[in-house]
Design goal:
By secondary structure, this protein is of the alpha/beta class. Helix content is 20%, strand content 32%.
C-alpha cells in the first residue's frame, strides 16, 4: 500500500488565546496573504487515510519545500477560525 506525506503549516490571523505562536507569525502571515495566497487551492476540509504521514513545519521551512517540481498551485489552504492551514501532499518524503 502506498503512503502519502502531508506537510503542514499554520498561520494565525488572530493570535488572541493562542499559546506558542511563533514570533514570525505576523511577518509570515503578511508574506502569505500578499504573495502566495492567490495561487493556492482553497478546500473546506480534509480527511487523512491511515497511510498518510503528517509532518508539521514552520512557515519558513514549508515555503522552502515549494520548489521544483512543486509550486504554490500545489498547496491547499484550509481556512479555520482565526487561522490558515497550508498543506502540501506528496507521494514520497521530501
Amino acid at each position: 500500500m502506498a503512503s502519502n506525506y502531508l506537510y503542514k503549516t499554520v498561520l494565525y490571523t488572530n493570535t488572541d488565546g493562542v499559546i506558542g505562536v511563533p514570533a514570525s507569525n505576523s511577518t509570515d502571515l503578511t508574506d502569505y496573504e500578499n504573495n502566495r495566497q492567490a495561487d493556492t487551492i482553497k478546500v473546506d476540509n480534509y480527511d487523512l487515510a491511515e497511510t498518510t504521514f503528517t509532518i508539521d513545519k514552520s512557515y519558513s521551512d514549508f515555503s522552502n519545500l515549494i520548489s521544483t517540481p512543486f509550486d504554490w498551485t500545489d498547496v491547499r489552504e484550509v481556512t479555520g477560525i482565526n487561522r490558515y492551514e497550508l498543506l502540501l501532499i506528496t507521494t514520497s518524503p521530501l
